[in-house]
Backbone:
């Protein structure tokens, strides 16, 4: 249990720093940036205190916002996916989730893909629509959402594969 | 009463979510209106400090390029010095009413729709909000918030940015804005129809604001078209500065700012 807490604290700090110092300078094709700090929300233990989880997600988003001068867009998007995570979990993992036995690091690759893909897509959609904040630019929003989501998803899957090997 | 408390306990997750979500929304909306984002910005002690230390490592990699830029600027300044009669038409700062302070950019962004830069000079170096920021090539933005050692610059690549600009050939002026698309192009609006535009013309800052002196280069006209009312031109400008690659900047301080402000407010 204690191990879990330290792991999550370290993950929190490392993800915020990596996001703001490294990943936000990628600007692939001019505007595509991966937002892998959502990994914290994706990998947070499933048996949790939901209040604390939502609050931590808020802090995570706010931390990224502080570095990127983006007002509260990352905080809003993070809180949003933290709140709807159980629904997506149920959708992606079905019965196994009901029995509380899911370990995201050891789940099937297909299920993991749906779970991460859905949450990342929703997160990016909220994030980018808030960031652009202009309904006249829906095309730009969708374009940015799609490309950034793909980029984030690939990175997230790679990172989980990379780090889950170690724990076995 | 019992009912209300029960309701709160039952829906505590949703209520917390709603509270935090609305809070972040309000922060977002605040950040979209110019000069209002109060606490969430990268010019504070923590984020500024982190950016500063990371940037001090990154700066070594740019030394060669920075040197070349300095050489280029030296050459330009020397050529002005040797051709004294050029003094009037040059892009050098036109009068001694403006003081320059150099600073390093420790954070730059250009891919969002509202971009900011963070620089490592703040109120301790007598920097305050509403000062212009330029490089040797042209305009960068306006300081929007200053803390002790850092300040945040509202880049010209920000949909909230409004800068007075004019043509170099004539005195027709308009407003410089950005539509959020490409970091290489900015837009100049409200140029009257009578203005003689040709693509390739240079656009400079107008002297009508107290922030920038007249004559700081901005970019060249790449295309232009009349707006819906057919009275004004919308001009697409290719900026001289590579906004994606900015290291050293100069901050322009107008020594007569207070005086002008007082004068302007006196007739209200």
Residues:
């Amino acid at each position: 249990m204690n191990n879990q807490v330290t792991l999550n604290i370290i993950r929190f700090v490392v993800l915020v720093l990596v996001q703001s110092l490294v990943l936000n300078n990628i600007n692939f094709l001019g505007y595509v940036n991966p937002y892998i700090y959502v990994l914290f929300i994706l990998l947070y233990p499933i048996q949790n205190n939901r209040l604390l989880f939502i609050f931590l997600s808020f802090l995570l988003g706010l931390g990224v916002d502080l570095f990127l001068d983006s007002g509260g867009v990352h905080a809003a998007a993070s809180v949003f996916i933290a709140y709807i995570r159980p629904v997506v979990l149920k959708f992606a993992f079905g019965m196994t989730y009901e029995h509380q036995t899911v370990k995201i690091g050891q789940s099937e690759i297909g299920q993991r893909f749906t779970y991460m893909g859905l949450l990342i897509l929703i997160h990016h959609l909220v994030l980018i629509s808030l960031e652009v904040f202009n309904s006249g630019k829906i095309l730009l929003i969708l374009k940015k959402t799609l490309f950034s989501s793909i980029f984030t998803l690939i990175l997230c899957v790679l990172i989980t594969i990379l780090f889950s090997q170690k724990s076995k | 009463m019992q009912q209300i408390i029960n309701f709160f306990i039952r829906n505590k997750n949703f209520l917390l979510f709603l509270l935090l979500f609305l809070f972040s929304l309000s922060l977002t909306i605040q950040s979209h209106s110019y000069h209002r984002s109060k606490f969430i910005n990268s010019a504070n002690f923590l984020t500024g400090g982190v950016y500063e230390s990371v940037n001090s490592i990154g700066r070594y990699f740019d030394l060669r390029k920075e040197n070349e830029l300095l050489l280029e600027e030296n050459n330009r300044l020397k050529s002005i010095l040797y051709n004294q009669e050029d003094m009037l038409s040059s892009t050098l700062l036109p009068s001694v009413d403006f003081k320059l302070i150099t600073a390093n950019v420790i954070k730059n962004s250009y891919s969002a729709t509202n971009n900011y830069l963070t620089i490592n000079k703040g109120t301790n170096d007598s920097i305050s909000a509403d000062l212009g920021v330029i490089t040797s090539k042209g305009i960068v933005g306006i300081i929007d918030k200053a803390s002790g050692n850092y300040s945040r610059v509202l880049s010209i690549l920000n949909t909230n940015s409004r800068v007075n600009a004019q043509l170099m050939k004539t005195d027709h002026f308009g407003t410089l804005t950005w539509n959020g698309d490409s970091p290489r192009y900015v837009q100049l609006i409200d140029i009257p129809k009578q203005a003689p535009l040709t693509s390739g013309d240079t656009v400079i800052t107008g002297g009508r604001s107290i922030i920038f002196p007249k004559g700081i280069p901005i970019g060249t006209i790449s295309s232009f078209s009349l707006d819906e009312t057919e009275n004004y031109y919308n001009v697409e400008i290719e900026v001289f500065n590579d906004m994606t690659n900015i290291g050293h900047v100069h901050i322009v301080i107008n020594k007569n700012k207070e005086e002008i402000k007082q004068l302007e407010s006196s007739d209200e």
Q: What stands out?
A: The helical segments of chain B are 2-10, 12-32, 45-58, 63-82, 257-266. Residues 86-90 of chain B have pLDDT under 50 and may be disordered. The radius of gyration of chain B is 22 Å. Residues 163-239 of chain B form a domain with the Thrombin, subunit H fold (CATH 2.40.10.350).
